[in-house]
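Team,

Forwarding the record for the chain on the shared tracking sheet. I've put the sequence and predicted structure together so nobody has to dig through attachments.
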Amino acid sequence: MWTTRQLADELGVDPHRISKIAQRRRWRRWEGEWLFTAEQADEIRRTIRAYDEHVPVAAWTCTVEGCETPAKVRGMCNAHYRRVSRHGSTERRDGSDWQRSKTHCPNNHEYTPENTYRFADGRRRCRACRLERASQQGAREEARGDDAVKNSPELGAVRQAGRAEARPGPV
């Protein structure tokens, strides 16, 4: 009798691969563990060798240089595939690389040096969108008459009094 681990070590494969073969053949587990007869072990060996002859080893691993992870999608491992789909390259960057790869804002204005506000922490904002928002807000305030209220002397006096009350005095 052979166990999954013994066959995996003998054939140099992952034990899950052997378990999958046994599941497809609908073989039964004995007390929760796979135990294989000589005939079953020979069939597993034949299956794995036949597959290995037809599929080159390069098809199993990621095509990115230096990565030995099994390939899942389009010849790449999951991590490299996600990285390519986000920013078009397999180079490793920090977590904001998918934001930097964007060339246009959500309103389809291009991020150019003339049209981009840059913050010290690396963030960026579209200048055209910001100007549009400011003009829309100004139009709303004008329609409501907020400019007259903001610039009224009574409101200024109320604000000054509120600030004076909020400041702590000498202790």
